[in-house]
């Protein structure tokens, strides 16, 4: 170990994070407000964030951490981007919530609908959970059917209908079915393996005229990154149409992540309803669901499907979202981020090979997951075969070297526009060392 590393190691054992986390455990459940933040599946101590800038987080002990979590994908521009910060501060001085419409809501909605022409109308909410929950209610309301088809290892937030065989924190904690979800409601959710059209066909033939919607992540990113195989999404589009069910594509992670628009546009499909979150709020709580006007007009006040929100379309959040989406239009924006992400993914594959570690790096755009798995990962059961203990060691080794990967084997690494080539080089060097341990 060289002196710089030992210094990092010593510093990372700072006491201030530990002291704050101890207090956090007294008053917050598990010391956190979202389970994966507790590092339960990777071990080690969660650090307390003091502030963030660009590609870095700074913890309460003054350690600089290269951040590949990026608020679970929300911070595509990196932390405290000057344009976003300026927009938020300007708005803060003009009022933070009105409970009445502002022009900014029109502007952010227009930025989304003009990037994605098959989405004509939007409703803003405050979290991805609300967006998917509301889209499902709308689908049930218009089809007058109750069943939902979803995929094992996909995550659509924490509302009752989505909590069986779910990805993200439930995968991390090994929670297959969640206590508190009434059995009668859970029975309405049918699961199929990702990338398995036959299984979906079978569910439809067992439940003719009963399925309101299929919901899918166009690139699964909550069981680690798992790509849709050719024909999978188009197949879902066909099956849903043929059976009078709606297709809900959950783009809470992928929306504006892979290009300036929806992942669907790259994959050649058009959903009936699409959900957004994360990036469209630029790190302030915003999410949305949208689709054709004829469908969206069933939502109150135009239609009977009720959905509302005190802070929905919040002006601070709208200002951050607008400032963020405007940056994404810059020529070459996505190419630059992807080039670095590709170097990261390729470099990680190389590092694993050189270290003789069986690994799969699933990647697309600025999303990547390093699975400690000898076989390709194309669905949730493959992902669960990966060596999660080994991932925990890797995570802790990287953190000691000042690199913050997702504190769970079932999440993506997010590369932001703030990450540099030098950051990627440093990450790959740290990965090579960590894999040798
Ligand atoms: C994060 C996420 C959600 C939930 O969003 P929250 O804002 O955390 O409620 C839903 N769907 C997908 C695909 C997500 O990645």
SSE arrangement:
Blueprint: H1 3-12, H2 15-27, E1 49-53, E2 56-59, E3 64-67, H3 82-94, H4 103-115, E4 121-125, H5 128-143, E5 147-151, H6 169-173, H7 183-186, E6 189-192, H8 197-206, E7 211-216, H9 232-242, E8 246-250, H10 263-267, E9 273-276, E10 287-291, H11 293-296, H12 315-328, H13 333-355, E11 360-364, E12 367-371, H14 380-384, H15 388-400, E13 403-404, E14 413-414, H16 421-436
Parallel strand pairs: 3-13, 5-6, 5-7, 7-8, 8-9
Antiparallel strand pairs: 1-2, 2-3, 4-10, 9-10, 11-12, 12-14
Helix pairs in contact: 3-12, 4-12, 8-9, 13-16, 15-16
The protein binds pyridoxal-5'-phosphate.
CATH class of the largest domain reads Alpha Beta
- Average per-residue pLDDT, rounded, comes to 95
Count all strands and give the number: 14
For the largest beta sheet, what order do the strands appear in spatially?
4-10-9-8-7-5-6
- The CATH topology of the largest domain turns out to be Aspartate Aminotransferase, domain 2
Number of domains: 2
Query: What is the 3D form?
Result: globular
The largest β sheet comes out as:
7 strands, mixed
Q: Give the distance, in angstroms, between the N- and C-terminal Cα atoms.
A: 12 Å
CATH-level-4 superfamily name of the largest domain: Type I PLP-dependent aspartate aminotransferase-like (Major domain)
Helix content: 40-55%
What class do helices, strands and sheet pairing give? Answer: alpha/beta
* Individual helix count: 16
Task: Give the uncertain stretches in residue-range form.
Answer: 1-7
C-alpha Rg (nearest Å): 21 Å
Beta strand %: 5-15%
Query: What is the string of SSEs from the N terminus onward?
Result: HHEEEHHEHEHHEHEHEHEEHHHEEHHEEH
User: In CATH terms, what is the architecture of the largest domain?
Assistant: 3-Layer(aba) Sandwich
């Amino acid at each position: 170990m060289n002196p710089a590393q030992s210094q990092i190691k010593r510093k990372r054992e700072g006491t201030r994070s530990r002291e704050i986390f101890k207090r956090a455990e007294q008053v917050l459940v598990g010391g956190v407000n979202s389970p994966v933040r507790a590092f339960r599946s990777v071990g080690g101590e969660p650090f307390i964030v003091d502030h963030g800038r660009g590609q870095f987080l700074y913890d309460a002990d003054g350690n600089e951490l290269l951040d590949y979590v990026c608020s679970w994908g929300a911070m595509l521009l990196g932390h405290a981007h000057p344009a976003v910060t300026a927009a938020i501060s300007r708005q803060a001085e003009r009022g933070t919530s009105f409970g009445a419409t502002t022009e900014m809501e029109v502007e952010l909605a227009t930025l989304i609908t003009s990037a994605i022409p098959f989405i004509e109308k939007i409703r803003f909410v405050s979290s991805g959970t609300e967006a998917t929950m509301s889209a499902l209610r709308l689908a049930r309301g218009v089809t007058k059917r109750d069943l939902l088809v979803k995929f094992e290892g996909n995550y659509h937030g924490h509302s009752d209908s989505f909590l069986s065989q779910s990805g993200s924190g439930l995968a991390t904690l090994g929670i297959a079915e969640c206590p508190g979800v009434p059995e009668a409601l859970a029975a309405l959710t049918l699961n199929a393996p990702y990338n398995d059209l036959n299984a979906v066909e079978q569910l439809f033939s067992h439940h003719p005229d009963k399925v309101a919607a299929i919901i899918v992540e166009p690139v699964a990113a909550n069981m680690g990154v798992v790509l849709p195989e050719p024909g999978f999404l188009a197949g879902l589009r066909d099956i849903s149409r043929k059976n009078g069910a709606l297709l809900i594509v959950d783009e809470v992670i992928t929306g504006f992540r892979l290009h300036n628009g929806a992942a669907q546009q790259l994959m050649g499909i058009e959903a009936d309803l699409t959900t957004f979150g994360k990036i469209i709020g630029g790190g302030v709580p915003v999410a949305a669901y949208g689709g054709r006007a004829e469908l969206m007009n069933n939502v109150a006040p135009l239609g009977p499907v009720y959905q509302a929100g005190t802070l929905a379309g919040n002006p601070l959040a709208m200002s951050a979202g607008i400032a963020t989406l405007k940056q994404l239009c810059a020529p070459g924006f996505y190419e630059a981020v992807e080039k670095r992400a590709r170097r990261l993914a390729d470099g990680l594959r190389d590092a694993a090979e050189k270290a003789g570690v069986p690994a799969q790096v699933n990647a697309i755009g600025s999303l990547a997951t390093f699975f400690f798995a000898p076989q390709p990962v194309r669905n949730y059961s493959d992902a669960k075969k990966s060596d999660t203990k080994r991932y925990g060691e890797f995570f802790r080794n990287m953190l000691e070297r000042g690199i913050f990967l997702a504190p769970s084997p079932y999440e993506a690494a997010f590369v932001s526009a703030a990450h540099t080539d030098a950051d990627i080089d440093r990450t790959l060097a740290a990965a090579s060392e960590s894999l040798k341990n």
